[in-house]
Specification:
The protein has about 150 residues and is mainly α. The protein is built from 6 helices and 3 strands. Helix 1 packs across helix 2 and helix 5 runs antiparallel to helix 6. It starts with a strand and ends in a 12-residue tail after the last helix.
């Protein structure tokens, strides 16, 4: 990135000069210009903001805060009915599929009533195709990561 003095880093970060110098005490300056030491900003900024490691208390607090915010957002979405539990969605899909299955089962008779010239063999072919479609639909499943299969 760029080389910056402690004063310039203080201006950029909004931290006091003293705070910046304290946080940079263990960082070796890249070079000296006059009375000022120059630090690599990509090395200095994480130290100034205390985000040098993922194990730092600040990083852990940020992670926990994000988890809490996500949980609150999820609860609000549930309260607003923007999302629904998997069990409710499974029940709705089951009812819809039962209705579709019922309609498909009655289809050959409906077709026979509307087109009386169809032979029994043609009606049986229609019925076979419907059964194939029903079997294909029943074999499909929702393999979505994180969803536990119902037992």
């Amino acid at each position: 990135m760029s080389l910056e003095t402690a004063n310039r880093l203080s201006e950029l970060t909004g931290r006091t000069r003293r705070t910046v110098k304290d946080r940079l005490k263990d960082l070796k300056p890249v070079r000296k210009e006059g009375r000022s030491y120059l630090y690599e900003s990509s090395d200095a900024l994480p130290l100034i903001f205390d985000i040098d490691t993922e194990d730092s208390p600040v990083a852990e607090k940020a992670r926990l805060d994000k988890l809490r915010a996500d949980e609150i957002e999820h609860r609000l979405q549930l309260a607003k009915s923007e999302v629904a539990p998997i069990a409710i969605l499974e029940g709705a899909l089951l009812r819809i599929s039962e209705q579709i299955c019922s309609i498909l089962d009655s289809l050959p008779l409906r077709i026979k009533k509307r087109v009386p010239k169809l032979t029994a063999r043609e009606i049986e072919n229609i019925r076979r195709e419907i059964v194939k479609a029903q079997n294909a639909a029943s074999e499909s499943n929702l393999d979505y990561p994180g969803i536990k299969k119902a037992t």
